[in-house]
Amino acid sequence: MSIEDIILQNDNRGVSQLRKHLPENFCMETAQKLLNNGSKVIIGTGFYIYSLDAPETDGPVGVAFLAKALQTLGFDVSIVSDKYGCFLFEELFDTNQIINFPITNKEDSDIFATQVIVDRKPDTLISVERCGLTEDGSFLNMRGVDVGEYTARLDSLYEYGNTNNIYTIGVGDGGNEIGMGKLAKEVAGYDKLPDKPCITPTDDLIIASVSNWGCYGLIYALAKITNKDLLPTEEENSNLIIRMVDQGAVDGLIPKKQYSVDGFSIEENNRILSELRNLE
Q1: How is residue 131 annotated by DSSP?
Q2: Residue 252, number of CB atoms within 10 A of its CB
Q3: Which of 52, 136, 239, 249 is the most exposed place for a label (fewest CB within 10 A)?
Q4: Listed residue (205, 206, 227) closest to 216, CA to CA
Q5: Nearest CA-CA partner of 206 in 220, 195, 189
Q6: Dihedral (CA of 186, 188, 193, 199) sign
Q7: Predicted local distance difference test score (pLDDT) of residue 176
Q8: Count of CB atoms within 10 A of residue 94's CB?
């Protein structure tokens, strides 16, 4: 078993079809580049669930643990979302670490993104389970509904990064997230994946059956390289999922407010962590 084998288990949406287009050990390669690239990181996340007027549990849970792991390694970490996602992080991180990106037009989004990068000077931009732009300028959820009215254009950050020598990483599980633009043509060609994928690319892409699991895989790789214990415990993972649901996050796949992520119970999520921890 590899990291990638573990995080691509129970792939119900077909994202593992993209695996052949990526490096065999994409988690370890990405972790090594991240470690080599400088100590300032911005992580974007937050996927709005239209039917429940709430953010989903997939993304923020993994981002919180990834941010904590990077902080343990000495990184300066900021988290960016919009008004539908920022509140999930307010009790976990300092106020000045949280960036509330406005929901506005392209021009103003580009201006805001540029200012964020000028102010924060990130070496790396990471996106986790963040709905991204399609070719026709919409933001499509897994059901093909345009949620652009409720989605800040975080793509502007990664577009800036891609053209200004800032390392970019995307984590996604469905084809409609920022980063999937790296394989947009391939995504559109596979059954079960969207016909109109996100077109915003990142330098490297981590795919997983659940994007939080992609974060767990990246954290494990960082831990392996640095020989530090960075993975959250099963208890920490359980507690954070419960906490975020109690704050207002929902399972976006079902969709329902319950203690699960993309239809997977807390126990099933913890099993992924256990398998990574026991990986030889």
Answers
A1: B
A2: 25
A3: 136
A4: 206
A5: 220
A6: positive
A7: 98
A8: 9
Strands 76-81 and 54-55 turn out to be unpaired
End-to-end CA distance of the chain: 9
**pLDDT at site 256:** 96
CB contact at 8 A, 244 and 88: yes
Query: The domain containing residue 198 runs over which residues?
Result: 3-277
Q: What is the per-residue burial (b if ≥16 Cβ within 10 Å, else e) of 194-230?
A: bebbbbbbbbbbbbbbbbbbbbbbbbbbbbbeeeeeb
Inter-residue contact 241 to 250 (CB < 8 Å): no
User: Are 65 and 257 a contacting pair, CB within 8 Å?
Assistant: no
Report the relative pairing of strands 260-261 and 264-265 from DSSP bridges. Answer: antiparallel
Q: Kindly state the average pLDDT of the residues 11-31.
A: 98
Domain count within the chain: 1
Which residue in 67, 30, 2 sits closest to 225, CA to CA? 30
pLDDT at 175: 98
Band of residue 145 on the pLDDT scale cut at 50, 70, 90: very high
Place of tokens 């924060």: 120
Q: Which residue has the tokens 């580049």?
A: 33
- Read off the CATH number of the domain in which 61 is found: 3.90.1640.20
Query: Tokens standing for 193?
Result: 């994946």
Cβ neighbours around 134 below 10 Å, total: 21
Cα separations in angstroms, 76 against 38, 147, 195: 10, 31, 37
Q: Residue 264: enclosing H or E segment and its boundaries?
A: strand 264-265
| Residue recorded with tokens 């950050």 | 157
C-alpha 75/C-alpha 52 separation (Å) is 35
Q: 151 with 171: CB under 8 angstroms? A: no
Query: Using an 8 Å Cβ cutoff, are 197 and 203 in contact?
Result: no
